Amino acid sequence: MDAFIKQVSDLCEGTIDHYGQHVVDRTAQLSLGIVATIAFLVGLVLQDIRMSLVIFGFSFFVLLLVVVPPWPMFNRHPVKYKSVAIQPKQ
């Protein structure tokens, strides 16, 4: 049972670097803005709010699949920490 919990925990960990976080943030913001505009315009032209909501909802879930998992492309620039300099005791 502990092994199963460890596997689930490892899958849910989702570590990405700072540059990857920036890419995810910009991708989500731009995509949601573009999709919201397109959904609004389609709903306006067709005079159908349901179509507008379907377009936005479907696009939102596709965007979730793109930005939420910790894909390897979001972890290409890992943080390099300085090594600790041990000072001799005096």
From TrEMBL:
It comes from the Eukaryota. Keywords: Endoplasmic reticulum, Membrane, Transmembrane, Transmembrane helix. It is found in: Endoplasmic reticulum membrane. GO terms for cellular component: signal peptidase complex. Its main location: endoplasmic reticulum. Pfam families: SPC12 (PF06645). The chain crosses the membrane at residues 28-46, 53-71. The keyword Cell membrane does not apply. The keyword Transcription regulation does not apply. InterPro entries: Spc1/SPCS1. One of its GO terms (biological process) is protein targeting to ER. It is a multi-pass membrane protein. Component of the signal peptidase complex (SPC) which catalyzes the cleavage of N-terminal signal sequences from nascent proteins as they are translocated into the lumen of the endoplasmic reticulum. Dispensable for SPC enzymatic activity. Belongs to the SPCS1 family. This is Signal peptidase complex subunit 1. It comes from Phaffia rhodozyma.
